Structures are given as structure tokens and as C-alpha cells.
Amino acid sequence: MSTKSILLVESNAADDDLALRALRASRVAGDVVIVHDGVEALEYLFGTGAYAGRDLHTMPACLLLELKLPGLDGFEVLRQVRADPRTRLIPIVIVTSSCESQDIRAAYRLGANSYICKPADFSLFADAMQQVGYYWLAMNEAPQ
Fold first, then answer.
1. Domain segments of the chain as ranges
2. Which pTM does this prediction carry?
3. Strands, E, within 84-136: which ranges?
4. Tell me, what's the pLDDT at 2?
5. Which one, of 136, 138, 127, 126, lies nearest residue 14 by Cα?
């Protein structure tokens, strides 16, 4: 099993549970940290708020980001992550229910590495999450 981790930013409890089960089934994800809104995601990444004192030398190998989040939305999380040199190179995969072309374009303009429209079918969603985990944690070579 890999020691790489994933940060899953998902406000829907059913989707985060399904994604977590699929990622664990893929056997490539070490830890999966789940946060439920944009503020919590940034606190985790930058070691503030509830995550003050977190070891910032250990960053997730991949960020799975929903766009439609309460409070601070996924676009703003993406903007802030890409603006900071400590987090700029973390691969960010948008995993969202929005398949709107303007959302897709905006996400890529802001620096997303990939964009996945959540399949409505349980097995297709689980398969997509397993493939994402495998690609970004086992196959992809990230800068050191």
C-alpha cells in the first residue's frame, strides 16, 4: 500500500462515503483525509484553524475537489491553492456534479489538472474514483 494521501473535499456525505470506499478498494490510497467545505480544505492545506500545528511538510499527493461547496466554493479553493507556492503543484482533480461547460473552462483556467463529472450510477462513480486513485497515486510522477 502507498503512503501517499488524498485530500477529499466533499460536502455530500453519501458521495464522500462512496468515494472513500472506492479509494480504499483500489488499494493505492494511503490516508484519505475528508473535509466538508472550502474553509476546512484551506485550513488543512495551510495548517490553520482546526489543523493548526499540522506537519506542512506532508502534503496530499492529490486533491479531489467538489466545486459546489457551502461557504467558500471549489473555485475559490482552487484559486488559493494555485496562488500559494507551498500548494501550487498539488494535482487537483475536480469531481463534481456540474457538467456545465463554463464550469469546466473556469476550472481549467484556474489550474485544475482534471475534471470529472460525477456519474449518477453508483458502480460508475466507484470505478471512476478507483481509476483516479490509481492514476494520481500509483502512475503519476509528481515533482519532489
1. 32-58+69-138
2. 0.92
3. 92-96, 114-117
4. 45
5. 126
SS3 assignment, position 93: strand
Q: Which residues of 27-63 are buried (b: 16+ CB within 10 A; e: fewer)?
A: ebbeebbbbbbbbbbbbbbbeeeebeeeeeeebbbbb
Residue 81 vs residues 39, 55, 63, 128: alpha-carbon distances, Å: 12, 17, 10, 24
Residue 1 clears pLDDT 60, i.e. is over it: no
| CA 10/CA 39 separation, integer angstroms | 12
Q: Which amino acid is at 22?
A: A
| Collapsed DSSP state (helix, strand, coil) of residue 20 | helix
Grid coordinates representing 29 are 490510497
Q: Could you tell me the pLDDT band of residue 29, with boundaries at 50, 70 and 90?
A: low
Superfamily of domain 32-58+69-138: Response regulator (3.40.50.2300)
Which pLDDT value is given to residue 91? 96
pLDDT higher for 13 or 102?
A: 102
- How much is the average pLDDT of 63-76? 95
Sign of CA dihedral 9, 13, 14, 18: positive
